[in-house]
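Let us practice reading a record.
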Amino acid sequence: MQLKHRIRFPLFVLLTLSIVAISPMPSARAAHDDSGTQPALAAAIAGPQRSEANKARDKYRHPLETLTFFGIKPEMTVVEISPGAGWYTEILAPFLKDHGKLYEAAGGGAGAKTFEDKLKADPAVYGQVIVTTLKPPAETDIAPAGAADMVLTFRNVHDWLAHGNTEDYFKAFYRALKPGGILGITDHRADPSQPQDPIAKNGYVRQDYMVRMAEQAGFKLMGASEINANPKDLRDHPVWYLPPTLRQGEKDRAKYLAIGESDRMTLKFIKPATVAQAH
């Protein structure tokens, strides 16, 4: 009896494995099928809700490549930090409208009112956007704690350094993200051979300095991309001399237009899945 039992058991296992091997698993395939992400993202970028002036900057800001690098998906809950006039909001809102959720963490004041008016003017595109206020240290609830799949901030960190509250921002990002959530950052990249100005008065931040600030908040660097690099930018001038600001007006305008927009770092961080991994 024991011999027969030992023979039947392997046959049963082999039969089971054979069935598993030939059985279709559509639910597993569907869970990992993100084939619709790129077309949906491209459609949002090409959409009529975007101004022509904003579309003209795609050659410098590379929204398709940047958001793809960060790993955005249509079903995500995403928080955009300090959206300004809404350059990226014009892409994120329609992309996330049907299956995801978009929080816009604005800084308050006149700029925030202008941004909210923009959203109200086109409810078909922006009607589901949730606007929150981010004014550290008092107001830092950018989304419900642990609710966000992704937090994105574009060309903002250098401004926070001047106010000395950058740590509060990173803490807010960490608190809003789920374990395993992504923090995506682009910003003007300083010359690594020069010491970091603690207030970034020229608008540039060293990449290693940015990584260190994020890691001090508990994040881990997943990757860095050269998508938004610009080797023409020697970073020997305030970033605002370059387009789109062109703060000097007509002075040296041709020179700065020839450089184009700033050299930028593009960094992807993760909130570790466990507290133990964050230390």
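A brief commentary: DSSP finds 13 helices and seven strands in the chain.
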